[in-house]
Specification:
By secondary structure, the protein is an all-alpha fold. It is flat. It starts with 16 loop residues before the first helix and ends in a 5-residue tail after the last helix.
């Protein structure tokens, strides 16, 4: 999440640094809108930092997505 209030939807930057890095081998980039649902004032304690509830939700979303993308652990 970027802030307690979602900015207006802006078109994606097609030549961004993240997109350039994502084109490299062995690089995984998660969905850029993955944390949009966390951009609510009640999940932040100031203009940039998540509060406890926000951090817990962030961690759950991140862990779930990383597991989905990487798959189960290899023996």
């Amino acid at each position: 999440p970027r802030a307690p209030v979602s900015p207006p939807d802006a078109p994606p930057k097609l030549a961004s640094a993240v997109r350039q890095i994502a084109s490299q081998p062995n690089v995984i980039v998660l969905n850029e809108r993955l944390f949009n649902q966390l951009e609510h004032p009640d999940l932040f304690w100031d203009g940039q930092h998540l509060n406890r509830d926000g951090m817990e939700q962030f961690s759950k979303v991140l862990a779930t997505e990383v597991r989905r993308v990487l798959g189960p652990p290899k023996p």
